[in-house]
Write a structure and sequence with these properties.
Strand content: 15-25%
Distance between the termini: 42 Å
Shape: globular
Largest sheet: 4 strands, antiparallel
CATH superfamily: Gcn5-related N-acetyltransferase (GNAT)
Order of helices and strands: EHEEEHEHEHE
Length: 174
């Protein structure tokens, strides 16, 4: 169809687009269904995956923090559409749009997925931006109480701290 043999034909029917204010409810719904952090869901920062029928089937955001760090966050795909490459397309699109350096937090079981996009785990709290260090510390306490095998993985992709961003990632910073 497009000369890219490594991508299945059905994947070409999903397009990425910037969210609009009218998309806010579906963003909240996708994030809620995925069971991920429901805070900081400003529609202005979201990229959406839309299928051939015009339905929003996935989302993700580039979330700026006060210290200038940008987080790849809130990547969620409708349950019935998982495993179809939509999450991969969203992540690729967000990486392309974002600054050279991106941070993220994910369940430890998802770390290998993000390593495939060039992210590396950051083990030392001293090497983490303040927000990530605080959230990871809190998650560690919860992990100890819940006694699960999962933990919160903090990951970084790209160049050294202080890399400038290519564009504004939304008005509200956390």
């Amino acid at each position: 169809m497009s000369g890219e043999p490594d991508r299945p034909a059905w994947e070409f029917h999903v397009v990425l687009r910037q969210a609009t204010e009218a998309d806010q409810p579906v963003i909240r719904q996708l994030v809620h269904q995925a069971g991920i952090n429901p805070l900081g869901l400003n529609w202005r920062r979201f990229t959406l995956a839309q299928d051939e029928c015009g339905r929003i089937v996935g989302c993700g955001q580039l979330k700026p923090h006060r210290d200038g760090v940008v987080e790849l966050a809130s990547v969620a795909v409708e349950e019935s559409r998982r495993g179809q490459g939509i999450g991969r397309r969203l992540i690729e699109g967000l990486i392309e749009r974002g600054p050279d350096e991106l941070w993220l937090m994910c369940r430890s079981s998802l770390a290998p997925l993000y390593q495939g996009f060039g992210f590396a785990q950051v083990e030392s709290p001293a090497a983490m931006p303040t927000y990530f260090r605080r959230v990871r510390g809190l998650a560690g306490l919860i992990h100890n109480l819940a006694r699960t095998n999962e933990y919160l993985s903090v990951m970084r992709r790209g160049s050294s701290p202080g890399t400038t961003t290519r564009q504004d990632y939304g008005a509200t910073k956390s």
